[in-house]
Amino acid sequence: MEILQFSFMQNALIASLLISIICGLIGALVVINRMVFIAGGIAHGSYGGIGIALFFGFAPMLGASLFALFLGIILAYITHRNANRLDALVGALWAFGMALGIILTDLTPGYNVDLMSYLFGAILSVSTEDLYAMSAILVLVCGFVLLFYKQLLAMSFDAEFAKLRGINVTLLYFALVLIISLGVVITIRAVGLILVIALLTIPPYIAEKFTNSLWEMMIASTILAAFFCLSGLFLSYTFNLSSGASIILVATLAFCLQLLVEKVKRF
């Protein structure tokens, strides 16, 4: 308990809980709508926004957020109208964002930002301003899910039925992609853009195996994500390891254990 006397650890614990709820809610929607590759494309492509922010001299996370929303609109438009060759289209935008970020970072004179924290996360360096940003995104995500839960449920499992019920599936799909974009960017602060997709998908994938509804899946995903984040934080503090990598390591081990248990049950 002595680690709680440090303000950076208190911020990290609060950030872990906020991010766990965000990942639990939008992660479940990502998994059931099979949007993992889209979320990954947004996460990696948002590096272009970090490069733009460094080049023009404003906050990197603001640049990442705006660029992620831009990519989200493009991906929503492409994927909603044409599902063919989705992997190639997302891969192209993914590569474009990363390349743009690297080039602009190289062109930025005298930058002194630790870029590794954006690649692999730095939850132990979360500031009070970061917590405010996470709280704002959490309120937005919770409000979106609560207001449109029935519509999201209908669209996720049968888009044609949702259209027949008068739901504007196109608008809802665009809104979902934009919410995912913001959730992805804010999670980068904890585990980095390279590892963010694991925290978004592993908890809901495990939760899906023992839940019977979307709400149950979201709650279970949140609890699992919180467990992974807190366990990873404890490991990183105890053994002086990278916090983001430690969180994902715990999540991956749990994922492998779940697969092993599932395989044993079949025999």
Question: How would you explain this protein's 3D organization?
Answer:
- With 267 residues, the chain is mainly α.
- The chain has helices at residues 7-32, 36-45, 47-56, 60-81, 86-107, 116-120, 128-147, 149-157, 159-164, 169-191, 196-208, 214-239, 243-266.
- The protein contains 13 helices and no strands.
- The protein has one domain: ABC transporter involved in vitamin B12 uptake, BtuC (Orthogonal Bundle).
- Helix 2 (36-45) packs antiparallel against helix 4 (60-81), helix 3 packs antiparallel against helix 4 (60-81) and helix 11 crosses helix 12.
- It is 81% helix and 0% strand.
What coarse outline follows from CA principal-axis ratios? globular
**Named CATH topology:** ABC transporter involved in vitamin B12 uptake, BtuC
The fraction of residues in strands falls at: under 5%
CATH class: Mainly Alpha
Report the average pLDDT across residues: 88
Series of H and E elements: HHHHHHHHHHHHH
Looking at the chains present, what oligomeric state does this protein adopt?
A: single chain
Q: How many individual β-strands?
A: 0
